[in-house]
Amino acid sequence: MIKISLIYAAILGFIFVALSIRVIKGRFKSKVSLGDGGHAPLNVAIRTHANFAEYVPLALIMIMGVELMNYSANIVHALGIILVLARLSHVYGLAAKNSLSNFRPVGVILTNLVLVSSAVLILIRSF
Quick check: 107 and 87 in contact, CB under 8 A? Predict the structure, then answer.
């Protein structure tokens, strides 16, 4: 059973829907049905949503793998919490008016930390 991982999948699912709604609102506001129509705020919303869709599924699969390999609940929770905070940081960093915001790189680093840590843990138990 992968109860812990599914908690984070649910939380991240809500974030994904919120990001989708942001894109939809941006499309209505900009009157653009495909692409970003040259509207920078819509482009940011689209890329934020797409980046989430690109990274979160693999990260969740990796966390589920860690859980299935019977690592402690604390490790699985730590990976899930870090992933949620990473993705929120990334979203906030992209939305920040200040392009030098540290939140985006923190989100990138933490997301990759979850991926690499999970991969290492899985490989350790695989041999």
Answer: yes
Neighbours of 54 (CB within 10 A): 10
CA distance 42 to 57: 23
In tens digits, the chain (127 residues) has pLDDT values of: 899 999 999 999 999 999 999 999 998 888 888 888 888 888 889 999 999 999 999 999 999 999 999 999 999 999 999 999 999 999 998 887 666 678 989 999 999 999 999 999 999 999 8
From 3.40.50.300, 1.10.3720.10, 3.40.225.10, 1.20.120.550, which CATH number describes the 3-126 domain? 1.20.120.550
